[in-house]
Amino acid sequence: MNRVVVTGMGAITPIGNDVESFWNGLKEKKLGFGPITYFDTTDYKAKLAAEVKNFDPKQYMDPKAARRMEVFSQYAVAAAGQALKDAGIDMEKEDPYRVGVCVSSGIGSLQAVEREYKKLLDKGPGRVNPLLVPLMISNMAAGNVSIQFGLKGKSINVVTACATGTHSIGEAMRSIQHGEADVMVAGGTESSITPTGVAGFTALTALSSATDPERASIPFDAERSGFVMGEGAGVVVLESLEHAKARGAKIYAELAGYGATSDAYHITSPAEDGSGAAMAMKFAMEDAGVKPEEVDYINAHGTGTHHNDLFETLAIKTALGDHAYNVKINSTKSMVGHLLGAAGGVEFITCVKSIEEGFVHATAGLQVDDPECDLDYTKGDGVAMEVRCAISNSLGFGGHNASLLVKRFEE
């Protein structure tokens, strides 16, 4: 089986539109939250979101191409372009049928649905945009990345709600391990801060109604009240080690393990004993040949809902045993909110950067200890420390659990 390494990264996030500014924002505990600007929230309980700022699609693609893409696809193309450039992939020197894509979205475009449904009601079916379907469907992130960069290999879209980005990177890893591709462009993208998206998650009582950005997204805090919706994209370039070495690529880290399970329990609540998430972590460690005590850091799913943080804490204890109390844990969502299908992409990048720079960022906003959440969630400030091995967790509605294990690259 081929070893899989990370050679490029790209990110569009609420705290920065490239990996460097995103990572620097995390180190500085920069919060991406503010009042929702995309629509009038007068009648909505949730007033805050983590919107992407100053994004101009024309910086990343020609205007005609941008017009034929909804925002989630634009974010995907932008982040994928950054990642390919970072990796130094020259498609003129590659067999395009050996370079694949697994950049996925959990939802696709609610904007297109809302806009065209209004037209349908007001003006009739004849006025609906002929491009509605290809603008709306979630696989168009992968489709557009493939078209923009001439990637002709395996092109797939994994939809597992909030675990989408993590499953996408894991399935891309498997594609390389099994020789289906030499290179995979993989990650997640999402843009669902719309009336329907916010109303729907609010009706589920999943969103925080806090109006203070400092106390809105506070994973593992006793006063947590739900998540804050974010948007953006996180995309990485994965390669077989052999292919990366042959072209002299810079190697950031090795993606060594992937575990995926289902709770088979409830459509929105994780299993109350955390067993499904725990098994995903165990499978990722087994896949990588890593013992629990070798794990230095876990980037938690850490949404800030009462159930998630409690059950994920139990899961970490089940998966790591006594070592759970020694491992550093944090939630990137404390600064960028919950990017839904893109969360796993940007959080995987956070793990790679933590290994590269020897730093674990703080869980911003965590102030009031919850006796039931009693692990080390990196309260206060970030910590400079050696990170040799990290796990990134994502848990999605429907009971989908996914864990990626990434470690420092060694020959």
From TrEMBL:
SMART domains: PKS_KS (SM00825)
One GO BP: fatty acid biosynthetic process
Keyword tags: Acyltransferase, Fatty acid biosynthesis, Fatty acid metabolism, Lipid biosynthesis, Lipid metabolism, Transferase
Catalytic activity annotation: a fatty acyl-[ACP] + malonyl-[ACP] + H(+) = a 3-oxoacyl-[ACP] + holo-[ACP] + CO2; (9Z)-hexadecenoyl-[ACP] + malonyl-[ACP] + H(+) = 3-oxo-(11Z)-octadecenoyl-[ACP] + holo-[ACP] + CO2
Pfam families for the chain: ketoacyl-synt, Ketoacyl-synt_C
GO cellular component: cytosol
Pathway of action: Lipid metabolism; fatty acid biosynthesis
Domain Ketosynthase family 3 (KS3), chain residue ranges per copy: 1-408
EC number(s) from the headed UniProt entry: 2.3.1.179
Active site: C162 (for beta-ketoacyl synthase activity)
Listed GO MF terms: 3-oxoacyl-[acyl-carrier-protein] synthase activity
CDD domains assigned: KAS_I_II
Function per UniProt: Involved in the type II fatty acid elongation cycle. Catalyzes the elongation of a wide range of acyl-ACP by the addition of two carbons from malonyl-ACP to an acyl acceptor. Can efficiently catalyze the conversion of palmitoleoyl-ACP (cis-hexadec-9-enoyl-ACP) to cis-vaccenoyl-ACP (cis-octadec-11-enoyl-ACP), an essential step in the thermal regulation of fatty acid composition.
PANTHER family: 3-OXOACYL-[ACYL-CARRIER-PROTEIN] SYNTHASE, MITOCHONDRIAL, POLYKETIDE SYNTHASE-RELATED
Family according to the record: Belongs to the thiolase-like superfamily. Beta-ketoacyl-ACP synthases family.
Name this protein carries in UniProt: 3-oxoacyl-[acyl-carrier-protein] synthase 2
Organism: Candidatus Copromonas faecavium (nom. illeg.)
